Amino acid sequence: MATICKHCGVELSQEMDKCPLCGNLPGDNKPIRDRKKTDAFGFLKRSRNLWEAFGVITITTIALTILINFIVDKTVSWSLFVAGGLMCAWLYYTIYHFAKHYIAIWAPAALMVTLSNLMLIDALTGGLEWFVSLALPLSTAAFLLAASFTFVTNMIKYQGFNVLGFALLHIIAFCIVCEIFIKMHLHSTVNMRWSIFVAASGIPVAIMLIFIHYRLNRGNDLKSFFHI
């Protein structure tokens, strides 16, 4: 016996599990668009509940850790490292939860969280010895390159080998920055060595990946490109 779709009035045969016109289930009183809105609202609610639960667990764990440290050692010492790490984890999740689609917000916010944690670690281990000369420039460079890579990949219309090529170029740039500041921190001089070899071997590969992608994008496949 044929059934009638409650949403558009199309007659459906018995073997049809959904309406070919509107896509709804024959016996479902709620249209697809309403189910999607409900599912999206439910997902946001569950995500917010998870964020709130994560925050409560983080604060409770930090408080218990500091309390245990104080009871055992009569002072607050190692618990500050645990507290800093847990708070950073919660702040990272907060940034992801509220601003994951806004690069201009999550990149500076995540950078500030990272720098604050590194400065705390350096301060608790004898003063600011390596934060200014090493952690600050390397962390800033890492986040700037990550933001740059995210921006470039979002601007690309067709993603393929070119993403690998751009990723390799950003990694090479970070290697160069690492060697510069590590040498400055350890020896107060810049004598570029290993990062030059990384750049010399990686840049041609990155250019080839980008070139292959745009050749393929014009209709060539790998076999025709390499004349196989």
Task: Describe this protein's structure.
This protein is mainly alpha-helical and 228 residues long. It has a domain at 156-228. Helices cover 72% and strands 2% of the residues. It contains 7 helices and 2 strands, in the order ββααααααα. It has helices at residues 32-73, 79-99, 103-124, 131-155, 161-187, 194-216, 222-225, and strands at residues 3-4, 11-12. The chain has a two-stranded antiparallel ribbon with strand order 1-2. The longest helix has 42 residues, at 32-73. The chain is flat and about 80 Å long.
| DSSP strand content | under 5%
What does the average pLDDT come to?
Answer: 81
* Largest sheet, strands/sense/barrel: 2 strands, antiparallel
Helix content: over 70%
Note the gap between the termini: 58 Å
Number of strands: 2
SSE string: EEHHHHHHH
The shape is: flat
The spatial strand order of the largest sheet comes to 1-2
Poorly predicted tracts of residues: 34-38
The gyration radius over C-alpha positions equals 27 Å
Number of helices: 7
What structural class results from the helix and strand content? mainly alpha
Care to give the gist of this entry?
The chain is mainly alpha-helical and 228 residues long.
Features of the shown structure:
2% strand; mainly alpha; single chain
Task: Annotate the secondary structure layout.
Elements: E1 3-4, E2 11-12, H1 32-73, H2 79-99, H3 103-124, H4 131-155, H5 161-187, H6 194-216, H7 222-225
Antiparallel strand pairs: 1-2
